[in-house]
Write a structure and sequence with these properties.
Distance between the termini: 38 Å
Helix content: 25-40%
Largest sheet: 8 strands, parallel, barrel
Shape: globular
Radius of gyration: 27 Å
Strand content: 15-25%
Structural class: alpha/beta
Number of helices: 23
Amino acid sequence: MHTERTMTTATPSQPGLSLYPHLLAPLDLGFTQIKNRVLMGSMHTGLEDGRDLSKLAAYFRERAVGGVGLMVTGGFAPNIAGWAKPFAGTLATSGAARRHEVVTQAVHAAGGKIALQILHTGRYAYHPLAVAPSAIKSPISPFKPFELSARGVERQIRAFVNCAVKAREAGYDGVEIMGSEGYFINQFLAKHTNHRDDAWGGDYSQRMRLPLEIVQRTREAVGPDFILIYRLSMIDLVPGGSAWDEVVTLGKAVAQGGASIINTGIGWHEARVPTIATSVPRAAFAWVTQKMKAEFKAAGLSTPLVTSNRINTPEVAEQLLAEGSADMVSMARPLLADAEFVNKAAQGRSDEINTCIACNQACLDHIFVNKLTSCLVNPRACHETELVYRPISELKVQRKRMAVVGAGPAGLTAATIAAERGHEVHLFDAAPEIGGQLNMAKVIPGKEEFHEMLRYLKRRVETTGVQLHLNTAVNAADLQGYDEVIVATGVSPRDPRIEGQDHPQVLSYIDVLRRKKPVGGKVAIIGAGGIGFDVAEYLVHEGHSTTLDLPAWQAEWGVTDPAAAPGGLRPEGPQPTPPAREVTLLQRKQGKLGDGLGKTTGWIHRAALKMKRVKMVGGVNYERIGAFTDGTNPAWGLLVSYGDKRENPTWIACDNVVLCAGQLPLRTLADELLAMGRKPHLIGGALEAGELDAKRAIDQAARLAARL
């Protein structure tokens, strides 16, 4: 998980050059040079939609200042048919090109380069005007697309070319043609989405005609001195996906047809294999780019290849480039998490990088419910113009003495931002270490990235000058000398009030995750929220995390070499290891368990637990915990009933019951302060305990500290 790096003698001006010589090396494309090997991959933020692109300009400018070599925008449709949703970002006219100039000018003024992604969604479109090679509805949109006529196909090609021309007119340094992730171009390539029998369907030479026409005609239209990136789906991860020889044939043809760079696309959006979640091993798909690189070398092709997905530290990126897996690395969310990623690496300050934990909670989860993207660990992402941490010296306001009580994510965020702005900040916690609930999250298999979050926050305390007081419980009287008091005391477990819950075999999630109390082979978990799912993951894996074991992860999800099976899916399907325990996960609510989990990650958690044979039961009443007779044998467990009428009472025999029944705000200190006439600021779990929402807690803390 934590890639070791070899320390070498650093140059005084750029110590990172000796640590990351491959990552920081320029890439010469002949007609232009990219200053390093970092591509900021395309990611839709919501800032692309609408006529005013000034906030998008600020967002990209900050990352250009941060040192990124080349950035790619979120997808812009080449026409209305290609919209992701009604009135999504489109670039098709000179008027639209003029509106984009605010973006390109801001990036160029900061010394950066930027390409516009041309994204035609095809049958993935969430609107009734969708078009596709065949009238086959996708599983992720309610709209069945219209099948294009041959003239309709030609219109789509012209739209791609026109969009590229308008991008050049707007001042972009290039375009990325989105040919992966199951979008329009991919739909022509795959047999299961292309049932045509004309010149655009049939055998692979005809199915690949569309991307080749788009690339060749785009190159002719924009000229030789314009960056043309093609996003190639190197492993589809869907049944009926492309075979490896087909992918190689297309990759070579695209390179010869005029692409400046070929980027790696991984998996269709409808694939049932996780590709970017935190439980996916770092650089889990770099091998497929390396495989393509070998094919290119054998063919005498020098077109640079970009590898992608779950590359979130400069150490991982450097290793991939050093071993020849790729010529560039694509990072999207890591540059949401820290706009200064590249500069910090170049300055030898990688320990100060705010690492992307791949949680998806504020980025992809937001986009899929039409909310503006941000970042759990960096609330300023996509809010650069409104959430600004101005030094108090600049604002000419008085320096305050502040107390922050609670060193969880909310307290740490508030304390470090306030201190960075110039206030005197004292941070108190009764525990012997910082992190609060993060110290339980980090032990869950698949959540090892929380170690990085804790590392970053600890370093922030050091660099901002926060005065840290651990092993220190404070009361209201101890805080009388402070101008401001921020209460971030977190939560306490909610008492479910079940008869028999005081039995020693009944454990809380804190007993299991923090106190490491022994747990038997059969377990009933009460509560199927985020913590219930985490405890289930912890118990069925017994310390072995496939996130740290790529071959085991590939077997668990059924991933294989696309040369062995089309699409890269094992014919025998997923092959998970047996669970370490027999677990039953229960909730009071009727319906699907984990329904409140993240939009883009909930299905992964449910699928992972189903593979471990976890029983998921909803609509139960918890009657009592205790001894019962199982046939003629004495047993112990949990008695449940079902529905409002408490019908069908059933004993669940188990060795332990684990309580994950929610949390309540811990406000004792806040109440004491209020009783003394003080008005503390409440943030995080102390304000609202629901589902231990770190995204909400960190955002609250950042906004409070920015205005005090």
